[in-house]
Amino acid sequence: MRRDVFQAIADPNRRAILGLLAQQRLTLNGVAENFRISRPAVSRHIKILKECGLVVVIPQGRERYVEARFDKLSEVNDWLEQYRQLWEGRFGRLDDVLEKMKKEK
Q1: Where are the domains of the chain?
Q2: Cα–Cα nearest to 17, from 62, 48, 59, 63
Q3: Which pLDDT tens digit goes with each residue over 37-61?
Q4: Does residue 81 have a pLDDT over 80?
Q5: Rounded to two decimals, what is the model's pTM?
Q6: Which CATH number does 5-104 carry?
Q7: Contacts by residues 52-58 (CB-CB < 8 Å, ≥ 24 positions apart)
């Protein structure tokens, strides 16, 4: 199954994993220690994040470290930008109406 970044961030556990990894790279066990879900569940979430290009798993000796790669999140930003422009336009028009109402008082 081909996954995309939107599927990756749709799950709150995966968003929390990304938030955790934004601060530092961690071992797989280090990631799992921060959650109340099973270690296999954390591994499945990391696998999905890896398939979407949001994390990489780096073997180092006996450990496997997970590191975030946030460049793929630009896809989300690009998608959101169209809505940001729409809402900025609407708020701009609302400001104009409110300013006009103030002047009329």
Answers
A1: 5-104
A2: 48
A3: 999 999 999 999 999 999 999 999 9
A4: yes
A5: 0.80
A6: 1.10.10.10
A7: 52/3, 52/4, 52/5, 52/7, 52/8, 53/5, 54/5, 54/8, 54/18, 55/17, 55/18, 55/21, 57/28, 58/25
| The two three-digit tokens of residue 41, written as one number | 């569940």
Q: How high is the pLDDT of residue 83? A: 93
- Which two three-digit tokens encode residue 77? 């930003």
Contact in structure between 65 and 26 (CB atoms under 8 Å): yes
| 1 pLDDT more than 90 | no
Report the alpha-carbon distance of residue 22 to residue 64 in Å, rounded. Answer: 17
> Cβ distance 17 to 49 under 8 Å?
yes
